[in-house]
Amino acid sequence: MKVILRADITNVGRQGKIKDVAAGFARNFLLPKKLAMEATPQNLKIWEREKVKLEKQREEIIANATAIKEKIEKVSFSTKVKVGENGKIFGSITANHIAKLFDQEGFTVNKHDILLPAPIKEVGKQTITIRLHPEVLAKVEVDIIEEKQKN
């Protein structure tokens, strides 16, 4: 089924593109959430009228995401973890842990937007990428500190 995307959708396409997607995906997800509309001649005309307004909104959203990126990259993030004898962390630090860390500092970040190739299992500084918008990625350093044991 051919649809016109009304929003950026990860792994599908950018706003305004005409994409051929599975009929079930379009009927059950894209169309009810108004993320897309069926690519008919009438809808193409409607899209041309909406495009200018949506482009302005898109530019504002990207500007806001860029401003947040600048703020978030200036903040220093650190967390203390328990470490075993060989320097490995007990368990691991996942995107969920990092999302909570950002929340403590006053930034709301969805755990799905934290791009970790694998859970963190070692102490030290780690560079983490955060997707604030499909076109705006922030690189943040998180310092993983060993929690000292009290004897």
**CATH fold description of the largest domain:** Ribosomal Protein L9, domain 2
Share of residues in strands: 25-35%
Kindly report the spatial arrangement of strands forming the biggest sheet.
Answer: 4-9-8-6
Number of structural domains: 2
CATH class of the largest domain reads Alpha Beta
Q: What would the principal axes of the Cα set say about the shape? A: elongated
CATH architecture of the largest domain: Roll
Radius of gyration: 21 Å
CATH superfamily of the largest domain: Ribosomal protein L9, C-terminal domain
Main β sheet profile: 4 strands, mixed
Q: Which runs of at least 5 residues are low in confidence (pLDDT < 50)?
A: none
Backbone structural class: alpha+beta
Q: Total strand count, please? A: 9
Helix count, per DSSP? 3
Order of helices and strands: EEHEHEEHEEEE
Helix content: 25-40%
Q: Overall mean pLDDT score?
A: 87
Quote the distance from N terminus to C terminus. 66 Å
Reconstruct the topology from this structure.
Blueprint: E1 2-5, E2 18-20, H1 23-30, E3 36-38, H2 41-74, E4 77-81, E5 88-93, H3 95-104, E6 114-115, E7 120-122, E8 124-133, E9 136-146
Parallel strand pairs: 4-9
Antiparallel strand pairs: 1-2, 1-3, 5-7, 6-8, 8-9
List keywords for this structure.
151 residues, alpha+beta, 3-stranded antiparallel β-sheet, 9 strands, Ribosomal Protein L9, domain 1, 3 helices, Ribosomal Protein L9, domain 2
Could you walk me through the main structural features you see in this protein, from its secondary elements to its overall organization?
- The chain is of the alpha+beta class.
- It has two domains: 2-70, 3-Layer(aba) Sandwich (Ribosomal Protein L9, domain 1), CATH 3.40.5; 75-146, Ribosomal Protein L9, domain 2, CATH 3.10.430.100.
- Helices cover 34% and strands 31% of the residues.
- It contains three helices and nine strands; from the N terminus they run E-E-H-E-H-E-E-H-E-E-E-E.
- Strands 4-9-8-6 form a four-stranded mixed beta sheet. Strands 2-1-3 form a three-stranded antiparallel beta sheet, covered by helices on one side. The protein has a two-stranded antiparallel sheet with strand order 5-7.
- It is elongated.
- The mean pLDDT is 87.
